[in-house]
Automatic annotation (TrEMBL):
A molecular function (GO) term: dihydroorotase activity
Active site, renumbered: D291
Binding site for Zn(2+) 1: H44, H46, D138, D291
Record's GO cellular component terms: cytoplasm
Family, as annotated: Belongs to the metallo-dependent hydrolases superfamily. DHOase family. Class I DHOase subfamily.
Gene3D superfamilies per record: Metal-dependent hydrolases, Urease, subunit C, domain 1
Root EC class: hydrolase
Organism the protein comes from: Gordonia jinhuaensis
EC number, as in UniProt: 3.5.2.3
Binding site for Zn(2+) 2: D138, H165, H218
Protein name: Dihydroorotase
Length: 425
């Protein structure tokens, strides 16, 4: 493949020889017989800047994304200050561009300060230079049904997406783990499946009547899959993501009380993992999103009940999708391209991501070696935090290179130096 001016210029054997006559500054990537995929798009990343740069910055998170094979990420709004104004969303966007390792799309908050009562100025954020196209109070649920209805009505008019963290807060008071036999035995307060499912069902119905598009963040239960099937059958505009950790891990991980496994929604039961995998294979769940959630060591080493929920995800997503979906034959590599790149780009209406690999298309690409294994070590990841539940686990499949508009952003485990000599990595 020959890439020129950020676009795919030619495909086929021998095109590298064509390049040498006319092109100066040519770089050759030897894919080594790997798999060439469109660059991944993550609909759910927490970059922590502004406010918690000790745990992640836009630069360090962008490096983790590039190393994970991503060319675009959506940065959630639960920063400090909250991304509930155009000042913050345009700032995040500008820093993302300056870093230049991945397209950083800020997510705008649905409500002011994530407070759940007063709608944020969605239209102003959508009209800013960041062109915000997704709104979410993620970390918190837009719980008030009237607020959610109004948000969906505005979303329809603006042609943007509302991404819901589906959690009925009255059902999760004090909850720290999936409500089931494991939590009961360990003495942990349970987060029932119904807390998620009741909101998913409600929001499907609100979206039906308001005509807006709703997206379900981190679907975690078999029941959510059934509701999505029903809603789809009604023609409701609803999409959903699943995280790598909800595909792979179940609540048996909690036996050690290690808070690295604490996450919202919680790790569920093996039967939920199976249902989520099947739903992803069938397209009932549209895509994989990481919910990359960096936290400082001191926020994770305390008692399980007091630890912050969330885990790293950007650099381990691909091998987990391979392990849970490709190896058992639930998805082929075309399917991986669909769930990691094409569907997230379609849902968020990104024009130049998740495109077919063809002449004239933007060169947003990921080259994957599906055979090579590596061992996860939190302190070797690009993130400023190390809260990975996969410490010392062997992962198979590595990202050989990531290419953003023709520029190599990661190669053989090294991220490119951010543009403008930024030193925040
Ligand atoms: N998933 C989590 O457990 N935590 C996320 C918030 C969220 O995605 O709900 C975070 O911001 O830390
Ligand atoms: Zn969430």
């Amino acid at each position: 493949m020959l890439v020129r001016d950020g676009m795919i210029a030619a495909i086929g054997a021998g095109v590298a020889d064509d390049a040498t006559d006319t092109d100066t500054d040519t770089e050759v990537i030897d894919g080594g017989g790997g798999v060439l995929l469109p660059g991944f798009v993550d609909m759910h990343t927490h970059l922590r800047e502004p406010g918690r740069e000790d745990t992640e910055t836009i630069a360090s998170g962008s490096a983790a994304a590039a190393l994970g094979g991503y060319t675009a990420v959506f940065a959630m709004a639960n920063t400090d200050p909250v991304a509930d104004s155009v000042v913050v969303t345009d700032h995040v966007h500008a820093v993302g561009r300056q870093v230049g390792l991945v397209d950083v799309h800020p997510v705008g908050a649905v409500t002011v300060g994530l407070g759940g009562t007063q709608l944020a100025e969605m239209g102003t954020m959508a009209a800013g230079t960041a062109g915000v196209r997704m709104f979410s109070d993620d970390g918190k649920c837009v719980h008030d049904p009237l607020v959610m209805r109004r948000a969906l009505e505005y979303a329809r008019g603006l042609d943007v997406l509302i991404a819901q963290h589906a959690e009925e807060p009255r059902l999760t008071v004090g909850a720290v783990a999936h409500e089931g036999p494991t939590a009961a035995r360990l003495g942990l307060t349970g987060w029932p499946r119904s807390a998620e499912e009741s909101i998913v069902a409600r929001d499907a119905i609100l979206a039906r009547d308001a005509g807006g598009r709703v997206h379900i963040c981190h679907a975690s239960t078999a029941g959510t899959v059934e509701i999505l099937k029903w809603a789809r059958a009604q023609g409701i505009s609803i999409s959903a993501e699943v995280t790598p950790h909800h595909l792979l891990l179940d609540d048996s991980r909690l036996e050690t009380y290690d808070a690295v496994n604490k996450v919202n929604p919680p790790l569920r039961e093996a039967s939920d993992c199976r249902a989520l995998r099947e739903a992803l294979a069938e397209g009932v769940i549209d895509c994989v999103a990481t919910d990359h959630a960096p936290h400082a060591a001191q926020e994770k080493c305390c008692e399980f009940a007091n630890a912050r929920p969330g885990m790293l995800g950007l650099q381990t997503a691909l091998p987990i999708v391979v392990e849970t979906m490709v190896t058992p034959g639930l998805l082929d590599w075309r399917g991986v391209a669909r769930v990691m790149s094409e569907r997230p780009a379609q849902i968020t209406r990104l024009p130049d991501q998740g495109r077919p690999i063809a002449v004239g298309e933007p060169a947003n690409l990921t080259i994957v070696d599906p055979e090579t294994s590596w061992v996860v070590r939190g302190d070797e990841l690009a993130s400023r935090s190390a809260n990975t539940p996969y410490e010392e686990m062997t992962m198979t499949a590595t990202v050989v290179a990531t290419v953003l508009r023709g520029r190599i952003t990661a190669r053989d485990g090294h991220a490119a130096v951010p543009a403008d000599g930024m030193e925040t990595l």
